[in-house]
Amino acid sequence: MEDIRIAGGRVNDALQRYGVDKAGFWVAETQTQEFNVNSGEFSLLRTLFDNSLTLTVYHQNRKGTITTNKLDEASVHKAVEDALASAESGVADEAYDIAPGQGGHCFHDRGYEPDMERLFERTRELMQEIAKRYPRILVEELIVSHNKVHSLYRNTNGTECEVFKGHYLVSIGFAGHEGDVTTSLFEAEATTDNLDRPFMELGTIEAQLKDAEAQLVTKPLEGKFQGTVVLTPDSLGYFLYSILSNFAGDSGILEKTSLWLDKLNEQVADSRLTISINPSDPRIVDKAHITADGFQEEDYDIIRDGVLRSYMLSLYVANKSGLERAKNSSFSVVVREGTTPYEEMLRGIKKGLIVGRFSGGRPGTSGEFSGVAKNSFLIEDGKITDAVSETMISGNLAQMLMNVADISKETVADGGSILPYIAFDKIVISGK
Questions:
Q1: Which of 2, 19, 70, 165 has the largest count of CB atoms under 10 Å?
Q2: What interhelical angle do 4-17 and 73-88 show, nearest 10?
């Protein structure tokens, strides 16, 4: 594979040769070693190699971006030419910029070198445990891999950030199966930088296996009512992404469509809710060290104790709006745990629904949402009664945050986020 420091030098030379005003670029080499399991048998073992260059230039206040997987001298020069051509066709805007010089940094994250023999053992162990403990589960596909990345970021203000990182990824697709009855497809995924724990214990893999078996017998929900919806960590992640991108992201602020516009330091959620973006958290595996604009990554709170503390803004939108840029550009979401154990939280619910997955269109700028509650279970008088089918939920994302009923003491760390179970009141639940 190409030496990325040599490739980085080629990019620097080409930028100087073409007289580029400002630029930032990543060069990376990636090695992926992957097992595939189909119908309980190892069907594929392969190693993939890849190089990449992502280059953004700012010339005469215009921006151009290009990506290529070729790092030879001719390809690098063509990439710079193409990025400049892209910039020339754009609209000039003085808000385009890169971070000032951040110096040089090198990071060696845990998990860079793989243990493939141990990875094979953990994979076989997972298949054996599923067959033993969940005999009514049919594994459609299991992909287990180690991803090793050596990357280099540089910009024309003198910043350099070199990163050596690696992680294991477990991705499994499965369904409950008994006789002629089959559930819908369940998917579970977890990332780890070590093989100390069985894969069954990672993320929500075991919880979803249990739910898939329980979904073999479902009942359609009758009627329509306003109740409490408990979002599992899997479904909560979907809703948080919609909430934060709609109300705190670049487009909502730039286009002035965000319901949180001009609400910094005001309450936008229940006082028990704190949402942070924390790539340095030791439970986050695929860590980010440098932002897309070339700043060193720092942890920050979006919402702290229910109060809006920050937006998720790029440097460009920060310059356009006069607001502060986000201290990192990752989505390593950490939601602070509550004080109520999960089982106790359920006992306090009169009537509601546990939602394992949500299927619906992307909510609009108003925050209104409506869609199908998948892998869901009815709660009545504090007890889980039936697995349900043909169930819809609807509400408003902004109002949801103000209607938090409870937050679980337990959290789930899947390598990319750390999330609890959260119960939300006043959600419309509809059956047949």
A1: 165
A2: 50
Strand partners, 319: none
Task: Provide the whole-model pTM.
Answer: 0.94
Chain center to CA of 312: 14
Q: Which tens digit of pLDDT belongs to each residue from 417-431?
A: 999 999 999 999 998
Tokens of 299: 């942890």
- How far apart are the C-alpha atoms of 275 and 303, rounded to whole Å? 5
Q: Tell me how far apart the alpha carbons of residues 319 and 63 are, in angstroms, rounded to a whole number.
A: 15
CA distance 233 to 333: 11
Bin 237: left if φ > 0, else alpha if -120 < ψ < 50, else beta.
Answer: alpha
The DSSP output letter for 157 is T
Q: Which residues pair with 161 in a beta bridge?
A: 105, 153
Q: Which helix H or strand E contains 90, and what residues bound it? A: none
203 is written with which tokens? Answer: 């993320």
The residue with tokens 């997972």 is 126
Q: Phi, psi (5° rounding) for residue 50?
A: -150, 145
Asked if 224 contacts 431 with a C-beta cutoff of 8 angstroms, the reply is: yes
Between CA 85 and CA 102 the distance in angstroms is 28
Domains of the chain are: 4-214 (3.30.2290.10), 218-237+337-430 (no CATH)
Q: What percent of the chain has pLDDT over 90?
A: 92
Q: How many CB atoms lie within 10 A of CB 36?
A: 16
pLDDT, position 262? 93
For the chain (432 residues), the mean pLDDT of every run of 10, in chain order, is 85 95 96 87 86 96 96 95 95 95 94 94 95 94 96 96 96 94 92 97 96 94 94 96 96 96 97 97 93 94 98 97 96 97 96 95 90 95 94 96 98 97 97 82
> DSSP for 318-334?
HHHHTPPPPS-----EE
CA-based nearest residue to 304, from 334, 347, 282: 334
Looking at residue 330, its amino acid is S
Q: DSSP label at 267?
A: B
